[in-house]
Amino acid sequence: MTRNQEIRPDIDEGIDRKVLAQLRARFLRINSGRLERAMEALSTRQQLVLKLLPLLFHVNHPLLPGYVSGLTPAGLSGYEPADDVLAEAQRLTRSFLYKPTRGKVSQPIHGLFLMGSLGTLAQAEKSDMDVWVCHAPDLPVERVAELQRKCHLLEAWAATQGAEAHFFLVDPARFTQGDREAHLTSDDCGTTQHYLLLDEFYRTAIWLGGRTPLWWLVPVYEEGRYREYVHTLLSKRFLRAEEVLDLGHLARIPPGEFIGAGMWQLYKGIESPYKSVLKLLLTEVYASEHPAVQCLSLRYKQAVYANRLDLDELDPYVVVYRRLEEHLASRGELERLELVRRCLYLKANKKISSPPRNGRKSWQRRLLERLTGEWQWDQRQLTMLDSRSQWKVRQVGSERRALVNELTYSYRFLSQFARLQQAASSLNSRDLGVLGRRLYAAFERKAGKVEFINPGIAPDLAEDTLTLVQAPAPDGEEVQWALFPGTLTHQEWPDFAPLKRSRELVELLAWCHLNGVIDSSTRLSLHPGNSDLSEFELFNLLGSLQQVAPLPLPPVSEDAFLQPATPKDILLLINVGLDPLRQHSQMNIHMTTGRTDSLGYSGVRENLVVTLDQVSLNSWHEMLVSRYEGPHALLDCLSDLLNGLGEGPKPNVLVRCFCRNRAPAISARVEELLRDLLAAFASDIPQRYLLQIAQQYHLLDLTPGQVRHRALSDLPALLRSLGQEQASYSPVTIDRNTLEGEDLLLILPLGRPDCIQVFYRLFGDEAELTVLDEHNSLWRQRLPYRDESTLITPLQRFLQSVLYRRTTQLSLGESPVRESPEILYYELVPPASPRAQAVERRSEPRSEITLPFYNVQAIIEPGEQRRRHVTLYCNQREFSELEFGGDLFAAVAGHILAQRREAERYPCYITDLDLSAMLGEGPVQTIHFLRYKAELEEALNIALQKA
Q1: Alpha carbons within 13 A on the beta-carbon side of 498
Q2: I want to staple 579 with a disulfide (CB 3.0 to 4.6 A). Which of 54, 532, 821, 838 is the partner?
């Protein structure tokens, strides 16, 4: 058999040991070439590390690097150091004297293998050394621990030589069973990718010393019966066991590994897509071939058996590229193929558009020149890729689209593959869900979300000079903000295309900040158009964004993605580019007023909070911008903010205003209001918050998740709103600048649950009654006043009858019956004054049994077409619509007057009311009865005056 022939061993016909030796020699020839290439790109000190590693694991000398103790396992199988290696060791330690180990029984270090990009097209100056240290399976635990300590010491020593080394202990017996405790490369995703890691090992690892892989000597067509084939080789002494290392075969790769590998590469690809696209696509190719996967290590082995030993074509990255090229070209996916080519070129990081620095071309450069020639790339394209470190917004935006499309496609493919193969365990399902959320947070567009355009594409997008312009939109109906590169005059910028347009300034600035387009060294030219934006305000807006979202943002934990996104940091910017007192500024008028509240400024109560821009950074690190303007901008913004709060920690909120007039006072007022709202919102009881803005009242319902506000034009509208029924007790918090001089300011803070509170205030011959019921709903009535007894006693009797009726509907057989609400009485003092100063408690009125008491009972029942039927009983005599029709109240009024001396026309009061047919079995509160009472009394007293 000649050297150039393909080798096809047939175990059934017998195997020639010379053939096996020839196969091993071919693998070692490739290995030697890769090791030489790896050394070529290393510094002298780094070369020393790689050259000495086999010796340092072979001997255990106190003066050599990595020494732990005399008991540390040492001895590399079959290794004998060359003279140049011994010379290097003696340069390190003059007293070192090597003693040959021939005949030494114990050689517990079975093999050393170099993983990673060393010796490949992608080797760079900072490439690390991942070294597998394969040791004897029977090493005691304490000896393995000693060996691990030796590895740590060697890592530290390598660092002193300018080499980043990582050592991973491998027990071949456990590894073959898929059992490993540690990550086996610095780029390893964990324990879920045994076969894919083994595939990468077989096609990329560089043998440094010890036993050679047994897998080398098993033909591809025998992979399916690997165990049987290996048993024959060893049992019939074709091979000696102490010469080979068995790490297993690749006959079948479980589908779950493709899911794990894909998820890991997608996870890494979110921040560094160029590094992940190649492996991600390779995983896709493997998965699409399942179960008959032709993994690259088998192709590599087949090439060696066929004596195709071209180092360039067997380069691990070229092998991956050729497989992806074959797959994508066959599917006609040429855009994806171009992306793969760019990823490979940028991964190699050899700028071939310019001459080599030392005038000598490396093998990597020559290989890249050959590949790019195949791809028909011209000088312009090479120059563009070689200048990636200088890429700015336009180049990055174009590249981002291709990368995001690829990552999104891979995620969908991965999810579909998991469903089809039913390979998604509960853990994988959760991980896929988390990964989907990571992709969504990083790349998905949605209204208000600031797009992040640079996921590891270019190192720095900051522009030296920029021009910010406000100008009419092309349709002329709206204005827009635009950002241009360079410094442009008012006459120049219309002729240039902007980097970014936006309807609102804050959205544009947030985009600039998140993507690093503006940094501390950027010089900005401003053309503010019709806005009031100044350079001072612009500078402070950018500073506020940096304060609320300092870059770079830290990684988001997996726990955060297990929960819905919630706001973490919020920035409220008030009156951006707008002067709320612009007319006064233009006229150079400085107002002097005692009313300085920013929500009701001066005697005309101007609202100085005209617009708000909310920038929020949530727990998934999405940046969202919302704009609020119009008469209810402030409360719309605060309602949305409160509704967005989750159950966890509350967000940090920063309120800022930089407009020309009263900016500190405006931001302080909004900050104060927000603080009060958050305190009320945190209560265990859903609250209402009363606020006055300009001429209007606003009542906010602070129910979590359902915060809303109502605008109320005047005090009567407010009273009607406060009088609406409540599902449960709901206190009212009053803003510090609201209800100035109004009785409600004294009454509302006294509300108590499960208590009916009656307040009265005297105005000469009139009195005002106000009631807060057990749910804090408010009822008010103005009445003629004679004395306190005739004012309070009718209401007292009515309330007592209402409570009695409600008590009779409760079951006595269950747990203790809840007590009826307590009735308390208060007077606002001093009487007959323009403003009440205080509220004083009054005792319950004492009604003597002997006093005349005219009982007027009402029963209201529903009728057709939303009509109501009323029946009245006057001292037990019935008056119904069936008898009197539309004259019911006139008939009752006549009857009452007939009972009085000299037909006195003082008011008549309803003393009892039945609403059981109207309200059914739903929740009933006292306010329902008071409303109907007032309505009936008004109709009855009008009839009394007319009678």
Answers
A1: 17
A2: 532
